[in-house]
Amino acid sequence: MTQWWKVLGSAALIVVGVCLWVFARDTEFLWFRGGPLGVVLVAVGVVDLVGSLWSRDRRRVE
Asked: What's this model's pTM, rounded to 2 decimal places?
């Protein structure tokens, strides 16, 4: 069974990261600026998305 909540969570990280990077580059959140924080969120979301989809494909083969 697919863990859709992990896929949706990863997609949400990617969307929030893109929004921060595009719309809030110079905005500061505590000690983070919006642009670099957005890039980090996109990277984490992509790694998590690829990991969850790859593990799903491996379970299907076994």
From this structure: 0.75
